[in-house]
Design brief:
Serine Threonine Protein Phosphatase 5, Tetratricopeptide repeat
Length: 166
């Protein structure tokens, strides 16, 4: 879409982020108004609507919209965001196993600034399934590169959590 539309969407989100207690229905209506400007079949429409439902506490309403956005071809950075957010929403509605299946391939995707979010969300899904050691391993592995010291040790500990003893 054009730069003006993207800026208006960003402004709507910034206002919501500054005051998340604002009228949720009004915020979703604003997003719906912006989405109505998109051409038919744009994957950005269901994606933005999913984000609005999700951010206002309705993971159940967000899931089909994330799926629609991905089915319409949402890709790249926003596609990765949609997969992360869809996995989180699936976990929230009791379908963590689907979230694990969705995010596991993302561990091998080209690296970007969303890598840690993938690992964090996947760790939550794994924990919901009682696979806490795997989840902790992911979180420690994501944290290790950000530490001023102990990077190698933490990375080793992360691997040891999921490596069978020899």
């Amino acid at each position: 879409m054009n730069r003006d539309w993207e800026e208006r969407v960003a402004a709507a989100w910034a206002a919501f982020d500054d005051d998340p207690e604002q009228d949720a229905a009004g915020f979703r209506a604003l997003i719906d108004t912006l989405v109505a400007e998109l051409p038919d079949g744009s994957p950005l429409g269901p994606f933005e609507r999913a984000c609005a439902w999700d951010s206002t506490g309705h993971s159940d309403r967000a899931v089909p919209l994330y799926r629609e956005a991905l089915a319409l071809g949402l890709s790249g950075y926003q596609g990765r965001r949609a997969r992360i957010q869809l996995a989180s929403s699936l976990r929230n509605i009791g379908q963590a196993e689907q979230g694990v299946k969705l995010l596991t391939p993302e561990l091998d995707a080209p690296s970007d600034e969303l890598d840690d979010a993938v690992r964090a969300c996947l760790a939550l899904c794994l924990s919901s399934l009682g696979r806490d050691r795997e989840g902790l391993s992911l979180v420690l592995g994501a944290l290790a590169p950000h530490l001023p010291r102990y990077r190698r040790s933490m990375a080793d500990y992360a691997r040891a959590l999921v490596t069978p003893e020899g």
